[in-house]
Every structure is written in C-alpha cells, then in structure tokens.
C-alpha cells in the first residue's frame, strides 16, 4: 500500500521492495489517501499488507520529524550493502525531506523540467494522466531502473578514472583516455574538467573522442585530428560530428562502422600533436 499520486519517495520505496525484496517480487500494489491504511485497519497489523510512505507505520516517516524518508527506512530494513543504492536513496531523501532540487544552481531553468521528481516529470504525469496512480508507478519503476544502472556505471567509471586513466595535455586543455567500455567513464571525466576524453573499446576496438570546451581555452575543433587519424588508418570508419567536438569510430546507432587498428596511445599521440 502507498498513497495515491505517488511521489518520488513512494515510488522508490515500492521499487526497492519489488526489486530487492524477494518476497515482494509479485506483490500487488494498491493505493490509499495519504495517511490512510488499507481498509482502515491498524497499520502493520496484517503481515500480508505492507504500507510505505503512508499509514504512520514502520515504513512511513511523516510522524517522526527525522531526516529520513520511506525509501531510507526500507533500505535499512533490507540491509543491502550497495553503494549505488545508498547514493540513490540519499538523493531521494534530499528531494523528499529538504526539497534540495529547489536550491540547485539556476533552479528555475528549463533544463530542470527533465528532473524526475514530484515537482517536475511526475507532476506532469499527474496532470496529463489524472487519477492513474498505477500507471505513474509503472512508469516510475522503469525510470528508477535506469537511475540505478547509471549510478552503478558512475561508480565503475570513477574506478576507471582513478586506476586506468591515461592523462595527457592538448591545446584545448587536459585530456584523459582509457581502454574501457564502461558507459559512465566519458561523461564523468568531462564533469571533472577534462576537455578531451578518449575511449578504446577493449572488445570491439572502436574509438570515441569527445570534446568539451573549457573556460579560457580555445574552442575545440577535431577536424585536423580526424584528418590525421584517417591518414594513419584509412580502412577504419571515422565520423566527425557537425559540432567538430565529437569524433566517432564506433556507435551504438551504427554497428557497421569499422573499428580502427590504432591503439589508445597512438590516438593520444595524435591529439597531443593536434
């Protein structure tokens, strides 16, 4: 049981139980008014009925006044040692208990319309698909699956940056490369101040080069890099994006691209001499 028009915390609480509580895998979810209980029975009085984020029971937090949320309570009950889950639920707590998203930099900017919480996407669902709490929860479960996978990838990516990254210098700023297929490596490195990030897929051999302009440096233009790499390995497929900041030798949207025979160090050498 959870409340109608479930918010981020309610959705995440149900998601945790369904994904990580074996006995909840096939549980039926029903909805009550916030603060209410199933058939108005005392909360937690029936072992077959579990209330989350409503009812003032063991998985509700509104009666405590503590900095917590239903998801946090359930995570503790599940006793899972999972760094991605801990970080995920900390964000849910920040949003649910502290409305932290309202204090993000430029919080009124349109880009935050893409945030997944009750003040953004979820509230849009509630207005567009009124009274369909079951659908909102179903869609939310899928979103939360994606959030969890991304956080796991982010943790793995930090390990690559710390232990496997090859640092180099370019005229556009710092660069970092790695032989890896960890999805989160490239965007995470860019957020940490690397102007140019290179990956070499250890299995398929494809190379990807992404540039991000840095303040005080000249704008990145990978045109000459593309020309030099094409000259070194003309058999490979090289695609330079119109922005001149993305040079791709492989893509999930075009599996027919021919991987390069060049190694990571050879690609880095071209970038440092560009």
Radius of gyration: 24 Å
Q: State the oligomer.
A: single chain
Q: Overall 3D geometry?
A: elongated
H and E order: EHEHHHHEEHEEHEEH
Which strand order spans the largest sheet, edge to edge or round the barrel?
3-4-5-6-8-7
Bin the helical content: 25-40%
Quick summary:
The protein is 38% helix and 11% strand.
Walk me through the structure:
The structure is a single chain. By secondary structure, the chain is α/β, with parallel strands linked by helices. The chain has 2 domains: 156 residues, no CATH class; 109 residues. It is 38% helix and 11% strand. It contains 8 helices and 8 strands. The protein has a 6-stranded mixed beta sheet with strand order 3-4-5-6-8-7, sandwiched between helices. A two-stranded parallel ribbon has the order 1-2. Helix 1 links the parallel strand 1 and strand 2. Helix 1 crosses helix 5, helix 3 packs across helix 5 and helix 5 crosses helix 6. It is elongated and about 75 Å long. The model has no long low-confidence stretch (mean pLDDT 95).
């Amino acid at each position: 049981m959870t409340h109608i028009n479930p918010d981020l915390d309610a959705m995440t609480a149900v998601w945790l139980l369904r994904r990580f509580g074996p006995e909840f895998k096939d549980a039926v979810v029903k909805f009550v008014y916030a603060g209410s209980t199933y058939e108005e029975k005392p909360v937690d009085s029936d072992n077959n009925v579990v209330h989350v984020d409503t009812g003032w029971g063991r998985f509700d937090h509104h009666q405590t006044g503590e900095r917590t949320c239903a998801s946090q309570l359930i995570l503790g009950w599940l006793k899972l040692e999972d760094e991605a889950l801990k970080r995920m639920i900390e964000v849910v707590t920040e949003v649910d208990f502290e409305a932290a998203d309202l204090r993000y930099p430029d919080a009124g900017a349109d880009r935050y319309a893409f945030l997944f919480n009750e003040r953004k996407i979820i509230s849009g669902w509630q207005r567009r698909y009124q009274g369909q709490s079951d659908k909102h929860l179903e869609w939310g479960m899928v979103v939360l699956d994606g959030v969890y996978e991304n956080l796991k990838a982010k943790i793995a990516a930090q390990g690559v940056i710390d232990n496997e990254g090859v640092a180099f210098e370019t005229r556009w700023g710092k660069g970092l490369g790695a032989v890896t297929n960890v999805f989160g490596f490239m965007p995470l490195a860019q957020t940490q101040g690397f102007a140019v990030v290179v990956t070499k897929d250890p299995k398929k051999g494809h190379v990807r080069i992404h540039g991000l302009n840095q303040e005080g440096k000249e704008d990145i233009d990978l045109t000459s890099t593309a020309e030099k790499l094409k000259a070194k390995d003309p058999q490979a497929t090289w695609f330079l994006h119109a922005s001149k900041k993305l040079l791709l030798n492989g893509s999930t949207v075009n599996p027919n691209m021919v991987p390069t025979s060049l190694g990571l160090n050879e690609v880095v050498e071209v970038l440092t001499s560009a």
